[in-house]
Write a structure and sequence with these properties.
Helices cover 44% and strands 26% of the residues. It has 162 residues and is of the alpha+beta class.
Length: 162
């Protein structure tokens, strides 16, 4: 259910539980019960989705020509299409809105991930939306091999009460 930077946040909670005296079974039970993550991934283009067999070559060619950008959601360990929009800028906006759409923003840690994009303006905008500090980290190879360079991602990680 976790990968890359969100996994680092989960490990932080596990370390806190160890310090608090939880045994292995208690940690396992608490993580399985309380841990959750929701993320949105916005690939720069459709090339890597096509190479990985996730979309057909015809769909990739047409989508790139029409500047269609998929907004992919990661939830419960699965990746699926949340929506499709035209232009990357619109996709970033939709991504921020979808991730920020929770009732109590204090219950989450917030993050933005990229490798080679300047996301500083989006970080400020997202922090204003959620009224919280946003962790910035880089996407790792395990994600990049599926969606390619230029990918932008953001998400929320449910805090675990220790």
């Amino acid at each position: 259910r976790y990968a890359c930077a969100p996994f680092k946040v989960l490990i932080k909670y596990v370390k806190e539980m160890i310090k608090a005296g939880y045994d292995g079974q208690m940690i396992k039970d608490k993580v399985e019960k309380e841990a959750s993550m929701f993320a949105i991934i916005v690939p720069e283009n459709l090339t890597y989705l096509k190479r990985g067999g996730r979309i057909s070559p015809a769909a990739a060619a047409l989508g790139n020509m029409l500047k269609i950008v998929p907004v992919l959601k990661v939830e419960n360990g699965a990746i699926d299409v949340e929506t499709k929009v035209r232009t990357t800028k619109k996709a970033y906006q939709v991504a921020m809105e979808h991730v920020a759409n929770v009732e109590n923003k204090d219950d989450y840690e917030w993050m933005m991930l990229s490798v080679d994009n300047d996301i500083s303006e989006y970080k400020k905008e997202f922090e204003a939306m959620v009224q919280k500090e946003v962790i910035v980290d880089s996407l790792k190879a395990v994600i990049m091999c599926h969606v390619g360079p230029g990918t932008f991602a953001l998400g929320r990680i449910k805090k675990i009460k220790v």
